[in-house]
Amino acid sequence: MEIIGGSNIRVYAPKDEGSHPFGQEPWWQESVFLFWYDLKAGAGGMHRIGHEPHLRDGSVVLYNYFFTSDNAIYKNTQILPIRSDDRFANGFGGGPSCRFEYDGRPIWTFDDEHASGRLEFEDHHPPIDLFPQNAGTVADDFAKNHLEASGRVTGRVTIGGKGFTIDAVGFRDHSWGVRVWPSLLTHRWVAGVFGPSHSFCALSWLGEDGTLRKFGFLIRGEKVIYANDVDIVTAIEVDGVTHRGGKVRMALANGELAEVTAEPLAKGILSFHHNVAMFDMLCRATMGEHVGICDFETTNNSQQGAKRPTNLIRGVIDNGFYPASGA
Q1: Cβ(148)–Cβ(180) under 8 Å?
Q2: Where are the domains of the chain?
Q3: CA 206 – CA 218 distance, rounded (Å)
Q4: Cβ burial 103-138 (10 Å sphere, 16+ → b, else e)
Q5: Right CATH for 26-303 from 2.40.370.10, 2.60.40.3880, 3.30.1070.10, 3.30.1240.10
Q6: pLDDT (tens digit, 9 = 90+) per residue, 199-242?
Q7: pLDDT tens track for 134-154
Q8: What's the whole-model pTM score?
């Protein structure tokens, strides 16, 4: 791939897609993450399997969220003991109900009483690490080893008894190493996909060391174009936690200006882990003539509060089914 305005980009091999040996550091973790949405089918999801070997003597942290525009939102978050079946060479188990494996391409399977299915991911570009190496706590304490790719998501899922044939766009990542959750105070992470030739990512990050970092890039075909400046505006609700989307503006290294508008597709999902309240909102993303999807992820914790949020305007935190309206 041609790189414009950046350097030190790492391209990962298939051997990196599977599980890695546990590290001995107290905050060591390994996780895989996927978000996707099929605008025609009106269905999407966000899924994360995280292995934390030093949490409760070894735990799987499972996030499973499904969204349907005409049906409901289903949230299932659990912390489970790591089983022997959850560690294998080419993937990860998320307990008995969720599984990630790499068999020439990433495959996710789901099977619980409310949601089931199988999704295959076809990368639009090689899995790469585009995070700057001098990004402070975001690189050193949260995403030391990190690969990501945009792509096409196909398969079949059943949510709340209703079946959907999926042909979507999505984004995935995989990270392993030390992840010091309290090092994150406030951040904005917006990653989006418009199709095989266009995807983007923008990030702002306030770490516990007081440093504020911002970076972003646009992938267009075989080119990665870094941003010289990034501005992320979030429409925060009066609860101080959830939001109603926002805008991303990136001044690219080639002189272009990339502007993305994000509008919610459904209520968002709040996860509360290690006293970090992280809010993810699946949105319709518009950039000029291009229409796609994005995950608009935020935390708002500059005071390092530790109370679990409950009164949310545009999100849910407890497991279960919720009406899809109210986005």
Answers
A1: no
A2: 26-303
A3: 22
A4: eeebbbebeeebbebebbbebbbebbbbbbeebbbb
A5: 2.40.370.10
A6: 999 999 988 888 888 999 999 999 999 999 999 999 999 999 99
A7: 655 565 667 678 899 999 999
A8: 0.93
